[in-house]
Each structure stands twice: as C-alpha cells, then as structure tokens.
Automatic annotation (TrEMBL):
<feature type="binding site">
    <location>
        <position position="327"/>
    </location>
    <ligand>
        <name>S-adenosyl-L-methionine</name>
    </ligand>
</feature>
<keyword id="KW-0808">Transferase</keyword>
<feature type="active site" description="Nucleophile">
    <location>
        <position position="380"/>
    </location>
</feature>
<protein>
    <submittedName>
        <fullName>Transcription antitermination factor NusB</fullName>
    </submittedName>
</protein>
<keyword id="KW-0489">Methyltransferase</keyword>
<dbReference type="InterPro" id="IPR023267">
    <property type="entry name" value="RCMT"/>
</dbReference>
<dbReference type="InterPro" id="IPR029063">
    <property type="entry name" value="SAM-dependent_MTases_sf"/>
</dbReference>
<comment type="similarity">
    <text>Belongs to the class I-like SAM-binding methyltransferase superfamily. RsmB/NOP family.</text>
</comment>
<dbReference type="InterPro" id="IPR049560">
    <property type="entry name" value="MeTrfase_RsmB-F_NOP2_cat"/>
</dbReference>
<feature type="binding site">
    <location>
        <begin position="260"/>
        <end position="266"/>
    </location>
    <ligand>
        <name>S-adenosyl-L-methionine</name>
    </ligand>
</feature>
<feature type="binding site">
    <location>
        <position position="285"/>
    </location>
    <ligand>
        <name>S-adenosyl-L-methionine</name>
    </ligand>
</feature>
<dbReference type="InterPro" id="IPR006027">
    <property type="entry name" value="NusB_RsmB_TIM44"/>
</dbReference>
<feature type="binding site">
    <location>
        <position position="311"/>
    </location>
    <ligand>
        <name>S-adenosyl-L-methionine</name>
    </ligand>
</feature>
<dbReference type="Pfam" id="PF01029">
    <property type="entry name" value="NusB"/>
</dbReference>
<dbReference type="InterPro" id="IPR035926">
    <property type="entry name" value="NusB-like_sf"/>
</dbReference>
<feature type="domain" description="SAM-dependent MTase RsmB/NOP-type">
    <location>
        <begin position="150"/>
        <end position="451"/>
    </location>
</feature>
<dbReference type="InterPro" id="IPR001678">
    <property type="entry name" value="MeTrfase_RsmB-F_NOP2_dom"/>
</dbReference>
Length: 451
C-alpha cells in the first residue's frame, strides 16, 4: 500500500526528474494509490508545501549537512526536503518524520545513505523553523538573498515583484505578497452568469459578483452536478473576464474572440456573458490538446462556440471583432500559490521571449478590432516587462489609433465591494490584482479601445 508520504515523494521526484507539473500529476497519483480523503489532503499539503518552500529547506539542509545542497545525491535531497517540511511546518511528530525520511532515502539510494540521512534529520529537529531561519539568513550576502531564503522565492522573482508593487507605490507590501505566495489558495468557484445560481449555503466572494466558496463538501461534485455551469475558477480570472464583457454595454450581435483560450475558464464566463447579451463568441487555442479543454469548458453554455487551433498572431486577423480577450502565455509569476514548483523552474531569460510573443499577440488583436472595439490584455504575471512594457510597446505601434480605458474603474464597477486598486505611477489605466491584497492570483488587466 502506498502512503501519503510516498505519493508526495514520488511527485516531488517526478517534478525534478521529468519536469512534471505537481498540480496535474498529484491528483492522478492520489487516485492510483487509492488514498483516503484525509491521506489525499496530507499528500497534497506535503507535496505543495515542500515544493513551494524548497529554497528555504535547501538552505537549512545544507547547514545541517555541512555541505551545499547541490552536493547531496538528488533522490536523497528530495527525501530530506520532504522531511524538513514535515518537521518544520507540519504537526507530523518529529520521530515519525525522521524515520520515514530515512526509509525513503534508503529506498532511493541504498543502506549506505541511512546514517547520513538520519544525522541530517536529527540535526534539523534540534531547532524550530524560526531558529533555523535566523541561522541560515545570517549567511545571506544581501537583503534580497535574505528574503529569498526566508520566503523561498528566487532573488530575480523577488526583484520583479518589488518593482511591480513599486509601480503602484506599494513596495512596502512585498513581505505580505511573498508570504501569500506560500499559502494554499482557497478554492473559489464561479456560477456562470445567467446559467447557474450560487448555492444558497455558499459564501459569496466579496469582489467577483459571480464567485463563491463552498462552506464544505467536494467542489468537483458541485461542478459535475451543474453540468459545467458551475466551475472552479480564481476570483481574479472571473474579474478579468467580466472586465472585458462589462467594460461597455453590449450591442446586439457583437462578435467576440478569446484568442489564447485554454483551458477555457475565462472562455466559459465570456460565453455565458455573450449568450445573455446577444453577442457571439469564438475561441482559439494554439495547442490542439488544450483546445479540447476549451470545448469542454463551454459545453454547458447554450449555443455554439467554435474553437480554432491556430497561432493567435495569424488567427486574430481572420475576423473583425468588437471584443477580444488576449489572456497571453506568460511566466505565471502571479500564480505561484497554485503551481508550487514553477518559481524554481522559470528563469529571467523566459521574460524577453514571452514578452515579445505577448506584444505580437496583442498587436494582432488590436489590428483585428472593429472601430470602437476593445481588447483586454491579461496576464497572470505582474512582471512589468509582461504587463506595462508590452502595453507601452503596442501603444507606440498603434499611436493615435488606440486609447487605453480605465481598467481600474471598470474592475471597481464590476466588484461587489470597494476594491483597493491604486493608480499606476506610469499614469496608465492598468488594474493589478494581488494574492495578499485581493486573495486572487496576481492578474494584470489592461483595456485598449480602437478609436
Ligand atoms: C494563460 S493561458 C490562457 C488561460 C485561459 N484564458 C483561461 O482562463 O483558462 C495562455 C494560453 O495561450 C496558449 N498559447 C501559447 N501561444 C499561443 C499562440 N501563439 N497563439 C494562441 N495561443 C497560444 C497556451 O497554450 C495557453 O493555453
């Protein structure tokens, strides 16, 4: 029988050895192991917690082992990371965590490693997390490196997040943001507008008018029972889709396009909004496998949403549209809570490549707008190169032909209760959502209108 710890270990190993995504692999492994709901929750906490805080644990393990983490045999290091997480951040009894870790290390690397694994784990149990942090932070060479160890974010990500907060004069919120990135997000759901009701016993979200959280029970069961009209979706994604559909009153017969649609969460909201307001929606997704997810996502909405499988840069110009969503491929630095390993995988060199593609997708969308049409440029990254930088470049390209709408005012008008969206120091209308401030992914929303 496979235990919760073994499932967590296998997923953590697969993330390292085969670039697996924990959020996709873990649910499959939980089913395969036949874990009870309690053990499934434990496996999830252990996997996500260990992967998120890996940088911190590596510094602690290195100190306890007296050698850099990179010099430890990787399968053994994975076991120690999982062990450190249990000892320092969960209520798993220390002796159980030590024994299990030594056993995992033995299975991975043989008997000869048990003495080492045992010694490192015992040393880790000698201090609590706060004492370890004080000790390992003392070795940092800069303030950013200290933050990097304490909050388990790479230094370049910390700098990018600080700059994005400073762009709205809120750099003092950096610690809150980094802490929020390390907490498990609550499961938020959406009832597609006009097609499903928010359950009476649910807690409504305070910003999105179509969002809620279940008081208890299984979200998947609610989704299935609704025939796809209730979906799991971050509240920020709900606001981003509504910012486009509700920016201006909808005229009958408007044509809408979702240019980078998969897996289709925002497509489903747009499809429901289009259906309710007499507009027609088309969707597009480059990856055929992911385009299938988009088709599934709109299955619960009456009417047809054709889904093409093309490069958005050439697809956009095949029509004239009144509203286009460009929810562009991005670094995902705004969704670190959800994808625990991603912060360690992304590199600064991903940014220029992605921002070049983002600018091309946005330019193609602007080109395809009918007069008066609007494009919502959305990223689940707050990195300024992917947000303000891309928009500034496209504004230069289309000078005199596009105007920026006040996305902050639109999001505020959609929001159920007052929402804290400070002005951007660049004077733009961009709305930036944050995990620590809004409880959402860090979505950036810009609205551009063709004049
Ligand atoms: C951020 S995701 C979109 C999320 C989606 N809007 C949702 O809410 O579920 C970006 C998508 O763009 C797709 N993509 C990447 N390059 C593309 C391109 N050149 N043209 C169209 N889609 C692209 C990716 O496969 C990915 O599915």
């Amino acid at each position: 029988m496979t235990t919760a710890r073994e499932v967590a270990y296998d997923v953590i190993s697969a993330v390292r050895t085969s670039d697996a995504y924990a959020n996709l692999l873990l649910p499959r492994e939980i089913v395969r192991a036949g874990l009870t709901p309690g053990d499934a929750a434990l496996a999830t906490e252990l996997t996500y917690g260990t992967l998120r805080r890996m940088g911190t644990y590596d510094a602690i393990i290195a100190s306890a082992a007296g050698r850099p983490a990179v010099e430890i045999d990787p399968p053994v290091l994975d076991a120690l990371r999982l062990g450190a997480h249990q000892v320092l951040a969960t209520r798993v009894p220390a002796h159980a965590a030590v024994n299990e870790t030594v056993e995992l290390a033995r299975q991975a690397a043989g008997r000869k490693i048990t003495g080492f694994a045992n010694a490192v784990m015992r040393r880790i149990t000698e201090r609590d997390e706060a004492a370890w942090l004080t000790r390992v932070e003392g070795k940092a060479r800069s303030d950013d490196e200290r933050l990097s160890i304490r909050f388990a974010h790479p230094v370049w990500v910390i700098r990018a997040l600080r700059r994005a907060l400073a762009a709205e004069d809120r750099a003092d919120e950096l610690h809150d943001l980094l802490a929020a990135d390390n907490a498990a997000p609550q499961v938020t759901m959406t009832a597609l507008p006009g097609l499903a009701e928010i359950p009476a016993d649910a807690v409504r979200t305070t910003q999105s008018p179509i969002g809620f959280r279940l008081g208890g029970g299984d979200p998947e069961r609610t989704v299935t029972a609704s025939a796809g009209r209730i979906r799991v979706q971050d509240e920020g994604s709900q606001l981003a889709a509504l910012a486009l559909s509700r920016a201006l009153p909808v005229r009958d017969g408007e044509r809408w396009l979702d240019l980078c649609a998969a897996p289709g969460g925002k497509t489903a909201v747009l499809a429901a909004e289009a259906h309710a307001n007499g507009a027609v929606l088309e969707a597009n997704e480059l990856s055929p496998a992911r385009a299938r997810l988009v088709r599934q996502s709109v299955a619960g909405v009456p009417g047809e949403v054709p889904v093409s499988e093309e490069d958005g840069r050439s697809r956009a110009g095949k029509g004239r549209y009144d509203r286009i969503l460009v929810d562009a491929p991005c670094t995902g630095l705004g969704a670190l809570r959800r994808r625990p390993e991603s912060r360690w995988r992304k590199t600064p060199s991903d940014v220029p490549e992605l921002s070049a593609l983002q600018a091309e997708l946005l330019a193609a969308a602007v080109e395809a707008l009918a007069p008066g049409g609007i494009v919502a440029y959305v990223t689940c990254s707050p990195h300024l190169a992917e947000t303000a930088g891309v928009v500034a470049e496209v504004e230069r390209q289309f000078e005199g032909r596009i105007a920026q709408l006040d996305a902050r005012a639109v999001v505020a008008s959609v929001s159920v209760s007052p929402i804290d969206l400070p002005a951007q120091t660049d004077g733009s209308g961009r709305a930036q959502l944050w995990p620590h401030r809004h409880g959402t992914d860090a979505m950036s929303i810009t609205l551009l209108q063709r004049t």
